[in-house]
Amino acid sequence: MEDYIFNTTNEQIDTSELDKVIQFACKKMGVKNPLLNIVIVDNKKIQEINKTYRNKDAVTDVISFAFEEANDFNYDDIRFLGEIYISYERCVSQAGEYGHSVKREFCYLAVHGLLHLLGYDHMNEEDKKVMRALEEEILNEYDIKR
């Protein structure tokens, strides 16, 4: 099912773990027949996306565009969730900063992006606590530890 993950960088990246963690997270969250894209980009591209769509001229790690915010995108029992953009360069640097594996950071960013597609956010402290707890629960149950 990895045909929804697109690597636009020049890096050789094994995306099989992203596919597995997304499938696991969707099942845990009760999302049946999800349709989404994950696009792996470099810092330059994610900064461009961030500036264009969020009016923030800065590199970030992950950006999600939820289709369901605009309308109910269900068709033939397929749930159209949206797109997740992940900066691979930022993922690698953050893994080093946080002292865990690139695999763990990559999976975290994918789950974080997925939760945004499902309507979770971290704009205030209470929402942030809920989202962080869910991220950790999913990753721990999937057996990706810090």
Radius of gyration, in Å, reads 15 Å
User: What's the pLDDT, averaged over the residues?
Assistant: 91
Helix content: 40-55%
Shape: globular
**Helix tally?**
5
For this structure, the CATH topology is Collagenase (Catalytic Domain)
What is the β-strand count? 5
Report on the architecture of this protein.
- It is a single chain.
- This protein has one domain: 3-Layer(aba) Sandwich (Collagenase (Catalytic Domain)), CATH 3.40.390.30.
- It has helices at residues 16-28, 43-54, 88-98, 102-117, 125-141; strands at 5-7, 34-41, 62-66, 74-75, 78-87.
- The two termini are 26 Å apart.
- By secondary structure, it is of the alpha/beta class.
- Strands 1, 2, 3, 4 and 5 form a 5-stranded mixed beta sheet that branches.
- Helix 1 (16-28) packs across helix 4 and helix 4 (102-117) packs across helix 5 (125-141).
In short:
This protein has helices at residues 16-28, 43-54, 88-98, 102-117, 125-141; strands spanning 5-7, 34-41, 62-66, 74-75, 78-87.
Keywords:
146 residues, alpha/beta, Collagenase (Catalytic Domain), five-stranded mixed beta sheet, 5 helices, 5 strands
What is the fold's blueprint, element by element?
Layout: E1 5-7, H1 16-28, E2 34-41, H2 43-54, E3 62-66, E4 74-75, E5 78-87, H3 88-98, H4 102-117, H5 125-141
Parallel strand pairs: 1-2, 2-5
Antiparallel strand pairs: 3-5, 4-5
Helix pairs in contact: 1-4, 3-4, 4-5
